[in-house]
Amino acid sequence: MTKPIIWIDADACPKVIKEFVFKTSVRLQLQVILVANSQMHIPQSPLIKLIIVKAGTDVADNYIVEHITENDIVVTADIPLAAFVV
């Protein structure tokens, strides 16, 4: 079984949550991919990656949906995205 990737719907995700996920990523050696429509500061780590998508309704959500696998974890406050992932 491959390790899950942690996907973060990053535009509206609170900083404290992102920082918690970053620490967890290091401790468990899990990849984190943030998806946002703007640049943001992330720690320099081979485990943490930022994907910038164009601005628009559900663009980041759609990117996440198109790239997740069944073992992945999605961090979001977006109820429709969460429902789709489940």
Give the key terms.
3 helices, 4 strands, alpha/beta, single chain, four-stranded parallel sheet
Would you give an account of this structure?
The chain is of the alpha/beta class and 86 residues long. It has helices at residues 15-28, 59-67, 79-85, and strands spanning 6-9, 32-36, 48-52, 73-75. The protein has a 4-stranded parallel β-sheet, sandwiched between helices. The protein starts with 5 loop residues before the first strand and ends with a helix.
Write the layout of secondary structure elements.
Layout: E1 6-9, H1 15-28, E2 32-36, E3 48-52, H2 59-67, E4 73-75, H3 79-85
Parallel strand pairs: 1-2, 1-4, 2-3
Residues in β-strands, percent: 15-25%
Number of helices: 3
Main sheet strand line-up = 3-2-1-4
How would you characterize the largest beta sheet? 4 strands, parallel
What gyration radius follows from the Cα positions, in whole Å?
A: 12 Å
Q: What's the helix-strand series? A: EHEEHEH
Low-confidence stretches: none
Mean pLDDT: 95
Q: Any idea what the shape is?
A: globular
Q: How much helicity do the residues have?
A: 25-40%
Number of strands: 4
Task: Explain briefly what this protein structure is.
With 86 residues, the protein is an alpha/beta fold. The chain is built from 3 helices and 4 strands. It has a 4-stranded parallel beta sheet, with helices on both faces.
